[in-house]
Amino acid sequence: MNVRRSAAALAAVGVLAAAAPATAADPSPSAPSPKAAVPHGLYGKGDPAYDGVWRQSLTLLAQRTLGYRPAGAAVDWLTGQQCANGSFTAFRAEPAKPCDDKAKSDTNSTAAAVQALAATGGHGGAVGKAVDWLKSVQNKDGGWGYYPGDPSDTNSTSVVVGALTASGTDPASVRKSGKSPYDALPAWSLPCDQDGGGALAFQPDEKGKLLANADATAAGVLGALGKGFAAEAGKPPAQDACAEAEHPTRQQVADNAGAYLATALGRSGHLTSTLPGAKDQPDYGNTADAVVALAADGRTEPAKKAYAWLEKNAGPWAVRSGPAAYAQLILAAHAVGEQPGDFHGTSLVRSLNALGPAPSMDSATGHSEESEESGDSDTGVWWIVGAGLVAGIGIGFLLSGRKQRRP
Predict the structure, then answer these.
(1) What's the whole-number mean pLDDT along residues 237-265?
(2) Chain segment 34-46, per-residue pLDDT in tens
(3) Backbone phi, then psi, for 189, in 5-degree steps?
(4) Interstrand relation of 68-69 and 360-361 (parallel, antiparallel or unpaired)
(5) Which helix (H) or strand (E) holds 38?
(6) What's the rounded Cα separation, in Å, for the pair 248 and 108?
(7) Strand 68-69 and strand 271-273: pairing?
C-alpha cells in the first residue's frame, strides 16, 4: 500500500494544474440565482432557502473528520441561525429577528446542526438547547417526524439519534410514553420473507404497508447503530443475509438493513433514483450515504466497492451540487478509510474548502493535506520531492495555494 500510494502521490503533483481550476468553479452553475445574497460565512453559492443549515452542518462536520478547525465565520453563521427555543429552521434570512411561523423549525436541520456544533466544540449551550427542543417534540412511538407533530419517519428519527449520540446523550434514555427511538425503528423494518426484506421504509403508507426505501435504509442503519453522519467502520456483522426475528434488536435491524444495501449496491455499485417520466438515474447522494451505512455495519467490502464507483463517477455531480455533496463524499471516504484528497485526480478537501471561508489547522493534529492524500509519512517525502521538481521547471505556483498543514 505504501509503494502504491507513494507513486500516486508523486503522479498527482503532475496533474495539479489540470485539477486546480475545477475546484474553483461555481459549484452549481446551472442552479438558479439566490433570491437574496448568500450570507457571509455560509458555504456555497446556491439559494440557501431550503438547505442552508443542512449544507453548512455537513460541511463543518466533514472538515472536522479531516482534522480542520472550521472558520469562525462559518461556525458563527450556523450558531446565528438558532431560534430562541433551541431549534433550527432550514434557513433564516434575518437571524436578528425572532423565529416565527414563516420560518418553521424542523428536526432534521436541528439534529444536523447539533452534530456539527458538537464536533466543533465549545458550543455546549447551543447544543444543549437544541437537544432539549428535540426531546420536547418526540412522538409517542419514540420517533420523530420532519416537523413537530408530523408522523415519525425513519430518516428524521435516525438523524436525531445521531444528534443525541453526538451530544453525549444515550438515545435509549430519551423516551416518550415509555418508548425510545430504538423502539420506533424496528417497526419500519421489512420482514426478511417480503420483497425488499431487511430494508426500512420511510414510514408506512396510507394503508399501513411498508415499502423498501434505500435512502431510509441507509439512514436507519446509522440510527439503529446509534451513530451519526461521521461514522467509522464497525465490526463485521454476525451474518451476511437477512435474519428473521420476532422482536429484532436494533443491531439486528441494522444488520438486516446492511444486508439489503449490500445486495442493492452489488448489482451496479450504486443506487438509482427514479423520477416520474424519466429513466432510472444514478443516485450519487444516497450511494454516498449507503457507503457510510455499510461501513458502520462492518460491511467494508461492498462499501469500498460503492466508494470506488463514486470516485469514478461522482465528481461532476459534486461540482453541480455544491458543499453538501462534497461533504457527503468526504464522509464516505472517512467511513471506509480512503483519501478524499485524491478523488479520481482531484481533491474533495480543497474543493469543499474553496466554497466558503477557509478553515484553519488544528495544531493538536498537525497533519498536512499532503499526508491526507498520501496516507503516511513516507509518501510525504515523495510530495516534497515532487514539489521541488515542479518548482524547478517554473510551475511551483501550483502548490502555493495548498494548505501546508491541516488539523
Answers:
(1) 95
(2) 455 789 999 999 9
(3) -90, 125
(4) antiparallel
(5) none
(6) 26
(7) unpaired
